[in-house]
Amino acid sequence: MTQTTNSELVEQILQLGRQKSLPEIGELLQSLDEDALYSLVESDLNGQNSASGTLTGAGFSAATLFMLKGASAIIENGQAAAGTRILGTIASACVSQICEDDPKDQKESGRRWAAVCDKLLEILPQLSPRTIIDTSFRILAELKSCGSTPSVLHGFLPMLLDALGTVGTVEITSGSDGMRAQGNNGDRDDDADAGESITRTGSELKAYWVDSACSYRWDARASVAVCALLREISLEEPMVERVGQRMIRQLKLVDLTELPAMVYQLLLFARHGLKRTILDGIFGFFDSIDNKQPSSEAEPEAHKRWRELGDIEGTVMHHFSYSVKQDFELGNALIAYARERSEGAGGGSLSTLSFACLLTLARIHRFEDAVTSLLRTIVMKGIHDSLALQATLWVRAYLPPPAFIPQDLLAPVVARAAYGWDQVTQTLVQLSLNIVDYSVGAQRRGAYSAGACAEARRVCTGALRSAFASHEFVRAELVDQILSRFVFQADGHEHFIDFLRDLVADDADLVRPYASKIVDIFDSISVVSPASIEQLLNATAPLFLEDAPLRASLTLVLRKILFAQSFDDRKTALSGLFVLAAQHMSALSAFEQPSDTGAGLDTRSRRRVDELLSASLEILGLLRRCLTQQPEVRAVSYEKLAQLLDAPFVGRNGVLTSALNDMFRSEFSKYYCRDKSYDSPVNIQMCINSNTCKVSMPVANFLHCFSKLTLCYSNADSEGSTTFLGEWNDMCDRFSKVQIEDFELDPTGDYMLSSPYGLRNYNTALLVIGCLDVCLEHALLYGIQRASSSRSMPDEALSIDRPELAMELFSKFCRFSDVLMSRCVDDRKKRIIGAVDELSTMSLPTVVRILRAILPERRGRGAGSSSMDDFVALWGANNRFIRHLLEIALARVQRRSSVGFSAGASRNVPPVPETRTVLELAYVVFFGAVAYYCSASSSDELDLPSPLQSKGGKSRSTLYLCCEILGACASHLCDRAMLDFLPTALARPGSAEFSLAIAPVDACSDMSALVAGLWNAVRLLMTQKPMAVKESVSILTIIQLLAGRLAEIATGVNGSSGYSDQCAQKATDCLKLCAPRVVGIINNDITGDIGLLKTVIGLLVRCQPFSQQLVADGEMPSLGWSRSGTAAPPPFAISSLDGKEMAPINHLVVNAGSASRFLFSEIESTDEDSVEPDLDIYTARTIPALVVAITAWIRSELHQVNWALTQLKRSVQVELSELESSDVEDLQRSIGAERRICLRITALAHIMMHLLKTSWPKATNDVVLRTFQEMHKTLGALTRAKINCPDLPITESYIDVLSLICSDLNTEAYTMLIEKYGNNSTEDSIAGGKGSKGKGKEKNIKPRLAGASKNTKSQVLKVSTLVSSLVFQIETTEKYVVQLGNKFKTPLSHYLKRSTARDFRIEANAIPEPMAQAYDNMGGYDNETAVRGQAAMEVEADHMEQQTESGLEDQEDERESNVQLEEDVEVSEDGSSPSTE
């Protein structure tokens, strides 16, 4: 019946609608009650009527549309209540039908329901509050039951809820479906009677609706839609946080495929103002997912999930980039979030996704600089903090581990670039290059430690290498960046060349497509040094060896530059050509028969040999053309050829030696005089231009090169070698007999460069000395070669054939050198040539080979050494020869420049020595000299050869030179992070080479053994009479370098991660043994040498932290504490540890203070118990240097304390985040760290007390006061840290350090300021110290007084700056102390000692009465200050009153005397009596 009625009604409505009789439709609808109207709309929307299904163009049912229009017509006719009722019923029916529709039919009916929703939006302003409430909560009930809302309502629902918020106060009834208004129609009112009636506003109903929606369970598949729906709703502050937290929790429930869309909705929702919380939730969720790359042995499902997660995170980064472009505040929020996380705020750390999002943010120009600077700081500071935590033994057990590891941030970005992260790979490349550039400048400025900068470069270049190997799109950019820095960057391009070398070594085929860019670099060769060109070509050698067209193009470019106008360009081109020649010849040596044309080789190898040989001959042809150019070019060519001929592979190739012979033979015949009637075998006059008196032919460089070629011929037993050797023997014999007069030189003549005659003499002597040096080198090398070829046993010691000839040549060399050095001076009579080694052309490999022949090995002496004993006797007769060789070796290792071949030429800097050569040199000098002292138990057991027994007179002794060379080798290896190779090379060298592949365990064991042997050498040297101070200092310097490396191994810093725990324990044990030995040196009577004292202090601070008293056997302070709540608390901070560690330093300070008071104080010491200082150790020269070294150590310790203070805040935050999950109620670890820091400062303050109490020289006082200023800065930083961490209480240790510094030390500092820098200071300069102990000891040796002398303006400004900055820092620290006391309600002001030096007094009589009344009205500052001020004012008033009375009496007496004087004058002039008036 109802269906028939509804059909009739629908037919009637349609008919009226077609007739456009809307008022009639309204009257018809008014005649229906709500239930009938609801049923009519429901049946029409469901298509149950026969007339149903008639749709409009928009897909809307025509009957329902006419009903809506009829209701609107009723409202227009003035019947608003009736029309609103009809519209509400229709809207409720529409929403109910949408909610009840089958989801399977959504595709078919979606168009129709969308049209319904559009119409609902039109009538929404006309709906009644009851309808709005019912409709809203009907949708909420749908969300509760289904976990989602119909998608067609997503545009309507936000508008509906906004309308709900504007509803006034309504009375509603609570039911089972939520809240509904009273009087609902039909079956929706069944539960209303059972509920309670309550009154709510529209905003409260909206808040309730949102809160209920957040509390319901959402369907995982509809989570994105629900989030999008809630995002469109205008929410207030409490509702925003509620919705945001609910959306973040929903991340864990959605599928991986839905995560990007879900995150995008969260980022859009962040516009409501919840940016930080949403970012934290997103990054925390992705960080909780296992995002580590699975190993190759993992299951395929793990790899699949890891790739899927990478793709999802890549999509998330795209969404993030788009969201930031729409809302820049989101980018600022991410930067602030990353900055806090990098500092460990809240106990968290920077996640991988957040780091990748920062890289994405850097692609936006607005944030590029800020993000790059932030990430650079994050990486550098993270590495610095990690290394500092490992190296700071005294506090590392109390601080948390690093917040993150930079390697863990960079590696995943590179690994996942193929899975959607390619958008950030390019940014990562730019960031890594920026960090490498920044680390070079930061290390030079001291912003970060050298270890931290090196580690940062290693991490970044590792990431770049991985990116280069994995992604093609970054390779071209990387090569361009490397080459641009190589050309335009003066500092730090060596690291990029090393990076390029690593890229070529990893896979040369990947770099080869970009090798043409390397050739293009030579167009900018004028701004590149020759050494840099050599580094570049050596790094890219495999590219040119394998690619003939590329090699041909490079050779063509170098050939063009070879004839450039600039000499520097030609020199650079020569360097490049010689590098190419050396590479090709080295490649030829890889074949078994390189001297043949390829016989015995397969076809491919023969073709390879022919190709390399052809290229080598082509390069030699280019070099031959250089031998006809200017003398400067020829000198460089000969020098490079000599280095090339030193290589063993050249002598084995007959084709190359023959080509070189053709180059030199004709030139040699020009200058060699076969006629023995001439005294000189070389025509020196032909080598000097008669007009300009300059060198026209660098004959010494030429002979040096020709000598190398001759030795190559003799090695290969080639034809013509006999002729060459005969000519060389004749040359050496004749040069050994020359006299200085044979070259028209006068020993007392003019050798100054300012006159033509002196310039001619200078160049002549220089060429003769060069020829003598070449002949000496040839005689030595040829003698060694002949002796080695005649050895019967391979292990027999080397010797030199005809040593007498070598000694004669050396004596002539010394004769000419002494004349030239003594007579060649500048206009100020200063020597131009400082040492003989500057005149020698010997290379380091040559010197090493000679030294290995003439220095007998300590462990190899014995049988079969009779011939060697003869040479040792000859050597002992001429000790200067061995010292000359050692000085050359030392200069080559230290790369000191040598004199050019002609006047005015630039000094030649030796090339960087190869590591293999440095290790061999260290081996030679160690077992040739130092090992004698390392293995002997006493001085009586020393079996020294005669050269080692000689002291060398005024020059340096042989033993000292050997120690210096060993130290230079150790320093060279330490600068290149290769010090681990030295002990193994000394302990187990190879028969002919020194291998660089060593096991870490062996290196650590050998290093410990070497340190023990060197300590034994120091013990013997310091017990000699007289004491070998310089030798001891050199060996102690080596021990200091080794101790520093052992400390790194023990603490695990600077590339020591590859060492095992067993090796670290060995290093710790070695340092434990070193500490008491250093203390023993300090306690014994040592000589007062500045270098010895500085070295001992440096070694002490290295080893003392590992002392047996501080580190128990088998125990080391743990690296940080576990972040687990159940971890054991750190050990209690013992106050005596720092005192024990610093006791030797304190002992030095006390003794130095006693000596300083004895030497410089004006007042005689009255302390009867004081020990008389040893004035042989603590002299007027050593005391200032000792104080400077100690204060520098104090500042370094304060620097460590300042770093620990920066970690204290993070420690508190991390520990507070753990207290929620543990039963511990206080901050045990953080309080322990604070106590440990206070104890460290206290120990340093006790040393500072001795420094402030002592009367030092004035310059030393400046250093002490600056150090005291740094200590106040540290105390101020500690106080600020406690202010910023209110959870840390004021401990007793803090009170102790506060009282010690701000009371006791301040008093001593003010006393020093008044005495040394006050207006009444009488000290202007320090008199000389006392004499030796044997002379008379006179007390009270007073310094010269200042008298009437005045300081200069610069001195006054310097002193005023020092005093004012110190006083300002003290007052700043006191300000922070007062703030801390006020914050904790604890009085701390009474620990502050205020000196009268900074007080001022108010004159009571000078205060105007209004100002005094105003001051009285203010009430003063506080009670204590008021009492002190009142007492001071009373005393000052009495004093002023007495002065005033006495002043008035004096003025009255003066007035009376003046009157009497005037009267006397009048009497004397007039002769009459004065007037009584």
What does this protein structure show overall?
65% of the residues lie in helices and 1% in strands. The protein is an all-alpha fold and 1477 residues long. Strands 2-1-3 form a three-stranded antiparallel β-sheet. Strand 1 and strand 2 form a beta hairpin.
With helices defined by DSSP (H or I, 4 residues minimum), what is the helix count? 56
Globally, the shape reads elongated
Q: What is the spatial order of strands in the main beta sheet?
A: 2-1-3
Helix content, binned percent? 55-70%
The rounded distance between the terminal residues' Cα atoms is 149 Å
Give the beta-strand count. Answer: 3
Which regions are unreliable across 5 or more consecutive residues at pLDDT < 50? 48-53, 55-59, 180-194, 594-598, 791-798, 860-868, 1122-1127, 1163-1169, 1322-1351, 1397-1402, 1417-1437, 1439-1448, ...
Describe the biggest sheet?
Answer: 3 strands, antiparallel
The fraction of residues assigned to DSSP E strands is under 5%
Q: What radius of gyration results from the CA coordinates?
A: 46 Å
Mean pLDDT: 77
Structural class: mainly alpha
